[in-house]
Specification:
Dihydrolipoamide Transferase; Rossmann fold; eight-stranded mixed β-sheet; 18% helix
Amino acid sequence: MTNPIYIPRVNANDDMVVVVSLNVSGGDMVNVDAVLGQVETTKATIDIVSTANGYFYPRVEIGEILPVGNLFGHVLDNEDPIFLETKNEKPWDRAQLLVSDAARALLDKHGLALDNFSNNQALRAEDVVQYLGLINKKAMSNDFVAKINSVPNPLIIYGAGRHGLVVYDAVIAGGEYTPVLLVDDSPDLDDGFYDLPILSLDQLEQVVFETVPFFHIAIGAVPLAKEARKKCQDLGFASAKVIHPMAYVSPLAEVGEGVFIGPQTVVGPKVVIGDMVHVNNGATIAHHCSVGCYARISDGAHLGGAVSVGEGTLIGIGCAINKDIVIGCNCTVVSGVTVFDNLEDNIVLRSDGTLYYSRQSD
């Protein structure tokens, strides 16, 4: 009698697994409930157990990425050496695989072949995303972990979008930290991060660091940046500020945790910059200014002396803020605007000079 062993579903959101071990060789005797091997989803490791006494014949290989419900192997009542050499599978016909447009776009983007999905009857975008996540999980091998634990000041960049690349460039130029990986839960990411793996937060939680790594949040949206910061703090990571070597920051200035300061920027004396602020390329902040936490000072913006910018406020590209101006929290000053008067909290100042309430505090 043949007893097929299938890969079980343990999480409603995981449709694919990677085979990480085979504990029993083909043709070996096993007892019921014996652990035949393990598979991993993006969130857990699952034991595959025998449902009968008999001789086990695997139908998978270590490293294979397979859909939930796929055949893992057979347990036969009697030893059958010939069975070990055959899989009794029908040849796979690529033409019969149904592929959605979104899945095909992801295949093209990441250079994946349809042969990687020969166990699927239909291929959705979600299948490709899970496959990519499992590939990244396989990258977290002992060699990978050893590598990131061997470098000085390992840095995790949280956010693999465009600003993440800007941060990566500044980190490489500065040399104080060694970027080891990126964290992002989005399946649609910009290219250009060279050999750095991109992990989800769930995958990051499984990496064992021998020393406490640093993290830097490369996310522009303030609510998301706050959430990402808390996640990294909960994991015990240390916050890192990133200052491009081509920036000038007065030794009399105070710069908070997790701040990013880009190239060709100037930060004057007696300036106080709160935590998690972004000061982007070519911006200048004159003497005695204060910039609240999570504020964003865009490229080429200029703050005159003793300007105050509130928490979470966005100063657009090329704006000019006259001296002694006070701008409230969660404001937006649209690109190119010159500010002559104080602004209350939650104000949007448009390029034609009109004001309206829009952004609310978090």
